[in-house]
Amino acid sequence: MFKYDSVHGQWKHHDIKVKDGKTLLFGEKAVTVFGTRNPEEIPWGEAGAEYVVESTGVFTDKDKAAAHLEDLYCSESSRNLTTPYPLEI
Fold first, then answer.
1. What is the pTM of this model?
2. What's 20's domain CATH number?
3. Is residue 72 part of a domain?
4. How many domains is the chain built from?
């Protein structure tokens, strides 16, 4: 999924390696991977998530996507940002 992309082409910035069953390495940057069907079970805060990639295609409407936002927090620098898709939390 990360190495080849039909829109952006092949990833050429760093080597992508599997560190263990839950971690990918992009160069030296470790990225935690979760394989759960229920996004409410993912500890976003504990994992230190700054970005979340949802690539299943299952959570395509506001109600379904809200499960990803249960423990959402905004950093101070993000509080005044606007988005083309306003979320009511």
1. 0.51
2. 3.40.50.720
3. yes
4. 1
